[in-house]
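Review box. Two proteins, two foldings.
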Amino acid sequence: MWSVQNPLEIWVKNDFVLSGCRPVPLLMHRTPPDTDPELEFWNLLREKLQGVVKFHWFKDLEDAGNLVVTPNDIKDYILGRTHWETVRKFNQQVLASNRTLISFIGGWEYKPKSGEIAFAGSTYRCEAEQSVAKPSWLYDIGHKISQLQKPSKPTVGFVGHTRYPGKVNSVLRHFPIPNNTVGWMAGSLLVNRNLTMSMRRVIAARVRRKVIEEARRAKSLETSITERTGDYFILPKEEKERQRKEYIQTIQNNAYILVMRGDTNGCFQLWEVMSAGRIPIIIDTNQQFPDLGDLKWEEFSVIVPYSQVHQIGDRVQQFHDNLSDEGFRQACQKSRAAFEYLLPHNFILPTLRQELLRRQATR
């Protein structure tokens, strides 16, 4: 079993590597350092992996050791329709050989097979959930955000999609769906595993519009909300930069930021809000979050179950009233501290080691 003194040896099938895609975290030390300030946190993982994780390329399974790692996120294979059937069948062979398969899913509702360790950014609190919850690391924007004093009235910001493109969304957004049904669908692992991306976006749009409606209605909150349509990552460079600047400015100007599910039961904005040292208002759709050790999510975030979103104003106001000026400052510091606790170089290897030890103990 791997320890700090004994490097973790992993095996990677060389013809499964996707060009132009970031590899899974365990392979980051084979890539050039990041120079973008928002991405430099990956370099800390690269440094930590050196001498601690040793990877071997292989072509035939008989040449692989016990720990086989799929080199890219499962979501990249599925959405890109590249190698997915080949990768899926090969991974089944890996597990049939009694080797341990390590996968990173990305934002996807995936069903790990017996013997597979799957790290996922979209998870649910239920017995059927077999993935290990991980952060959806995207950017660290802490260097762009200055400290904020506690406002007299809770200031709440949000910039994001509330409508999505596509024929399915255009048609179904006019059909009424009871709010309790929306909440059930949003928080069900089994339902989401069987929904297309278009259908998931229908659920995301209903959740987001309901939350924004209730936040705007709450007289105790001062809201700054920008609703968007379309996919940010395919926008022209100039428009993308403008929207990104607007998004950063909204986080800078507000003490609380709405965070809720999108295509899947996760949201990368949560981790950016935490990196900025702001207080997230997490709309809980039955998501399983990573453990924070001595920190508690409730110490720096307002958690509102979707079924109680009509109480969002009261929930935020109560959290706000319970904080002194110093307490507010500490809550913001804890938000940033939780982000740092869950950074890849702090999270990946200890979590993987713990999971390997747990599985070894149950054999």
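Next protein.
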Amino acid sequence: MFSGKTALITGASSGIGAEMARQLAALGCQLILVARRTERLDALAEELSKVSVQVITLDLSDPLAPQRLFDEVARRGLKVDVLINNAGFGFQKPLLAMSLEEQLGMVDVNDRALLALTRLFAQPMVERGEGWILNVSSVSAWFPIPGMATYAASKAFVQTLSRALHEELKPAGITVTTLSPGGTRTEFSCKARGKMDPSLEKAMMPVEPVARAGLLGLARGQSVVVPGMLYRFMTGLTRCLPDTWVVRLAGAVMGRHR
């Protein structure tokens, strides 16, 4: 389905974003790779040189970055068929252990930039009557997590927005899919938690099947994709347990806030 199309991937220098780039390139998809680390992007572009790869270095924490990215894509004469909003970061810290700047930076990248890019690139997709948007959320979107509250809330925003847009944009020929991974073996997980909890590390999935599940779900027109039976079971629990239990359980397992 994506052969001959052009995909723009944010957060493409490592982890899920880089793996999606590899898998899309294997399908014959042209790529626009966006991240802060030019060296990483250039190395990935060289690795995937069998397809056309454009590299754009950008920091999405800058509120002006989404419009600059959209304008640069237009300046290069590129058409984005597939938008993958993968850029994001988080901290496993209580509210008062983080600076306000850190928390607002998280919201700027995880939510503000994602919303702006979705709005900007959806318009030409609607005009063409075809397009695919994959927004990367998290299993955390189901769980208010004491000790990781801002991150979980930012991902709940992504999921709620994307589920609504799945229905809103469907009549225009646009597919919007939310990928909600649980623990995944990436640099992001190590940075978010600092020292990795051994019990959580055992539950982590390799990046390859997570990226594959997201792209397959997008191709199939799914609204939400949760890779892994364990994480599908966990999200299902939230429909069965009282809200107070869900919050306490999330804090005990993930937040480690005391």
